[in-house]
Amino acid sequence: MRSPRAERVRSRIRINWTWTQASKMSESPGYTVAPVLAEDHEEVMKLLKRTFFVDEPLNRTLGIYRSESESCPELEEFCSSSLHEGLSLKAVDGDGRIIAVLINETCPIRRAETSADPKFQKILYILARREEGTRLWEKFPKENKLVEVKVAATDARWRHRGIMNALVMETEKLLKGQGVRLMRLDTSSAYSAKSAERMGFECFYRVRYKDIQMDGQPLVVPELPHEYDCVFVKKLY
């Protein structure tokens, strides 16, 4: 009978082997996919601040972050809290610069979050509506957790090259290797929703932003074509 310590070592070996295989298989013209490391934290956050913080439809509409002279501790914590869980991926160019990142997080099938920031409270209200709308704990009663694609960001100069699709595909391989059955992808962007459908994700929640209201008024209405808030889930096996 193997000791708990031996099992932990074997588990780390399996995970490291998976990352090695993923890196080998993900070499594409101009970039390579690899795991996010602890020393990547500052560079990843800089990438997020010039992309996700300002481009994501809800962040942009609410004006949560307009320039690097401002700060939103809640948004920064939201992005970085699971960055080094061991599931996040980066794309690196030939010069070693991080050009894209996919932050993945293990989370319970049912969750709740709070915030003191008035603007970020609106984001969390929308997230809460997603939970109640999908009711994934009822649709997958035998599961108690899943892995969610929490944040996706690509440098503007590297967009429309299939990098994010490659990161998602490598995440799927990693999760299958770890025995994770469900992968979740929430989309506030119409473009992300189309990508999710193309990659085989099933939509479990879809509602118009104008119908997400508080006190009789729409909470946040991003500019077109970002008309719907959606939750997608993919059964990996």
TrEMBL record:
Transmembrane segments: none annotated. It comes from the Eukaryota. SUPFAM superfamilies: Acyl-CoA N-acyltransferases (Nat). PANTHER family: AT07410P-RELATED, N-ACETYLTRANSFERASE-RELATED. This is N-acetyltransferase domain-containing protein. It comes from Iphiclides podalirius. The lineage of its organism: Eukaryota, Metazoa, Ecdysozoa, Arthropoda, Hexapoda.
